[in-house]
């Protein structure tokens, strides 16, 4: 049962297990650039969604509505 499983690791065993799993120890995230890029992307998506919600139709967004043509009575 559970009696055969080790319940306790020594400090050297834990260090060995974590040291073996580092796939690329030289790789480091650039958190500042990731944060700026993420905030910029979120801002653009938010601005675009507000623009879509305020426009009547995407095809006519920003274009004036056509004026009705008056017919001459003769």
From TrEMBL:
This protein's UniProt keywords: Ion transport, Membrane, Transmembrane, Transmembrane helix, Transport
Coiled-coil region list: none
Membrane topology, from the record: Single-pass membrane protein
Record-level Gene Ontology MF annotations: sodium channel regulator activity
Domain of life: Eukaryota
Subcellular location: Membrane
TM segment ranges: 36-55
Main subcellular location of this protein, as a coarse class: membrane
One of the GO biological process terms: monoatomic ion transport
Amino acid composition bias (Basic and acidic residues), ranges on this chain: 1-12
Residue span of region Disordered: 1-21
A GO cellular component entry from the record: membrane
Homology family: Belongs to the FXYD family.
Name by which UniProt lists this protein: FXYD domain-containing ion transport regulator
Organism annotation: Clupea harengus (Atlantic herring)
């Amino acid at each position: 049962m559970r009696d055969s499983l080790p319940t306790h690791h020594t400090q050297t065993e834990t260090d060995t297990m974590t040291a073996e799993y580092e796939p690329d120890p030289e790789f480091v995230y650039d958190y500042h650039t990731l944060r700026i890029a993420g905030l910029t992307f979120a801002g653009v998506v938010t601005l675009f969604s507000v623009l879509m919600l305020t426009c009547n139709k995407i095809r006519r967004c920003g274009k004036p509505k056509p004026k009705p043509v008056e017919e001459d009575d003769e």
